[in-house]
Amino acid sequence: MTVDAGLTTVRTDRACDAVIAQLEQRILDGTWPLNTRIPTEPELTAALGVGRNTVREAVRALEHAGLLEPRRGDGTYVRATSALGAAVYRRARQTDLLHVLDVRASLERAAAEAAARNRTPADAERVAQAARDRRAACELGDPDAFVAADLAFHRAVIAATGNPVLADLYDGLTEAVERSVAEIDRLHGDRADFPGHDELADAIVAGDPQAALAAADAYLDVARTIIERRP
């Protein structure tokens, strides 16, 4: 793909937000259609007049939002053009963490029950593996690796519901969820002493919606307490 002549250089202050806005607009208006490869990082850097780190951060944010997908050795592709997910993403980026948690609670409680009812054997194994990966990440000293493992677990639960609308909504919240998980992890400090995740995985594998809901409530209640008590 050639670089879009419509891309314009951006100011250095709040450069990442400006880059995100331009890239996102090209996805939403169809300039970069579904399943097409976007310009390379050096091409975007030259067109936008910003540093490579700024471009990389902006592309990563859109990956987290579910709009872009990196393919090893083949560049970055447009994965989704959902206006719903993009709207949720834009709004959530500047939302208070308690508001984000309220929305998370609504989606994740519904997802817990639905995943326990609807999961396939393959879904159950993916959720169980994601829980194991999250548990292993608890022992690491790398906060970024833990946040990534936690998000992967929650997305596996969402996928197990079989509900594409719920998946689109959650994808739009990804950046805000990541921010909330990172802040809760920073404030709490003891990842092993955080209930609910392993119990949720077990309930989904067992096909027990009530136990799944109780497990989701357990970790959401702790998360709310941590956020409410922050300095």
From TrEMBL:
SMART domains: FCD (SM00895), HTH_GNTR (SM00345). GO terms for molecular function: DNA binding; DNA-binding transcription factor activity. InterPro entries: GntR_C, TF_FadR/GntR_C, Tscrpt_reg_HTH_GntR, WH-like_DNA-bd_sf, WH_DNA-bd_sf. Residues 13-81 form the HTH gntR-type domain. The keyword Translocase does not apply. Coiled coil: none annotated. Keywords: DNA-binding, Transcription, Transcription regulation. This is GntR family transcriptional regulator. It comes from Pseudonocardia sulfidoxydans NBRC 16205.
